[in-house]
Amino acid sequence: MRLSLAAANATGLVAGVLLDRLLGDPRRLHPVAGFGQAAAALERRTYAPSRAAGARHVAIALGVPVAAAAVAQFATRKHPVARAALTAVTTWAVLGGTSLRREAVTLADALAVGDVPAARATLPSLCGRDPSGLGPAELARATVESVAENTSDAVVAPLCWGAVAGLPGLVGYRAANTLDAMIGHRSARYERFGWAAARLDDVANLVPARLAAGLTVLVAGRGHRGPALRAWLRDGGKHPSPNAGQVEAAAAGALGLRLGGRNDYAGRVEVRPTLGDGAPPAGRDIYRAARLSAAIGTAALVATAGHALAAPARRAALSWLRTRRRTAS
């Protein structure tokens, strides 16, 4: 039986997730790292302290890999097996769920044996906060919040865009998210130049972040779904990010924790609102957050692969509705 393109896309997403679960991030020649190096080299040519310059930078840095992915997708339109294989490898490259959980567990293990310096050394692989002055409680909070936010950014969102737009969606989302991480933060250099990257990332994550929050409620388990839903609906909009607060609030409710507080980003201090009603996270809660992240990833795969597989049926239904309307008129 010939594999359809819809089945090829769905199969590629599933295989890519399995590769990520088995292998984590590629250890050498990581495509995302290569993109970051290329974007940094481009920035040296395009930088100017203006929004227009930043928009041009994003257009070039994003447009080139998306165009290449579109060409690859077009070239495999008659070769579903090749499409599935290429989608699998691309999905593996853009996902980061397994490495996220591994780093979080490494930090939790360090806290479990009282090795605070080792935990501080691990934190930069999870988030951008300055770990030098953080104790066990703040290290645990930073890790739980990072796991919650990045489960959306590094798992749910790439799968969503892969299900909707195939290879260009996978590549485009990861490129946009990487650009945001590189230049989308507020600083003297990037206040204006990084504006386009930050806003693009916000738009790209609007739906995935809310799907991630909904899936958090779904997989929270008996007795935890109600608190997760309440925290999401009540606290999700308090966060300064239009997306991070959605998943962090839902995770806080699902885990029975209270998130938020003072965050130090190498001298830039932000005081985040309280999310959830429980106690502040401890080291042992990191393990629970990692298990919740894995469950959300599985649920996201089921939803997105199913969406990709059902694409022909949706198109047929829309075509039938249009035909009926033309006939009726």
TrEMBL record:
One CC-aspect GO term: plasma membrane
Broad class of where this protein is predominantly found: membrane
Cell location: Cell membrane
This protein's UniProt keywords: Cell membrane, Cobalamin biosynthesis, Ligase, Membrane, Transmembrane, Transmembrane helix
GO molecular function, one term: ligase activity
Pfam families: CobD_Cbib
Domain of life assignment: Bacteria
Membrane topology note: Multi-pass membrane protein
InterPro entries (UniProt xref): Cobalamin_biosynth_CobD/CbiB
Pathway annotation from the record: Cofactor biosynthesis; adenosylcobalamin biosynthesis
Record GO biological process: cobalamin biosynthetic process
NCBIfam families: cobal_cbiB (TIGR00380), PRK01209.1-4 (NF002276)
Protein family (similarity comment): Belongs to the CobD/CbiB family.
Job description of the protein: Converts cobyric acid to cobinamide by the addition of aminopropanol on the F carboxylic group.
Name of the molecule in the record: Cobalamin biosynthesis protein CobD
Species of provenance: Longispora fulva
Taxonomy of the source species: Bacteria, Bacillati, Actinomycetota, Actinomycetes, Micromonosporales
This protein's encoding gene: cobD
